[in-house]
Design a protein that fits this description.
- The protein has helices spanning 8-17, 69-78, and strands spanning 28-31, 36-42, 48-54, 62-66, 90-91, 96-98, 106-108.
- The chain is of the alpha+beta class.
- It has one domain (8-108).
Amino acid sequence: MATRAVTLEEIAAARRLSATARHAGFLWQRELDDERVVRLVAMQQSTTRITIGDRDACIVDDVWCFQDDAAAWRAVLGWDGEGEPEGWYRHPGTRRRRDDGTPASEVVGW
């Protein structure tokens, strides 16, 4: 797993460009070299989700929830698709939760 450093300028530029993706139901999409896509999806109650899945499939392979908007943007822009993105607070598939977004705060069974 690796997440490259993402600057505030990159996040700001991506946010400006995200208006073109919103009609498709997500804020941002980035294709990975293995033909999967990472998407940033706005949810209710001030959360966003990162999804990853096959470019041509309607079903996603995995989902991570973010409360910190900047962490979600860093993940969608910088994550390489291996392991898990950094900064998430909830992983619905495994019922894991990280209240402060770090592995040290992880609990199972929320």
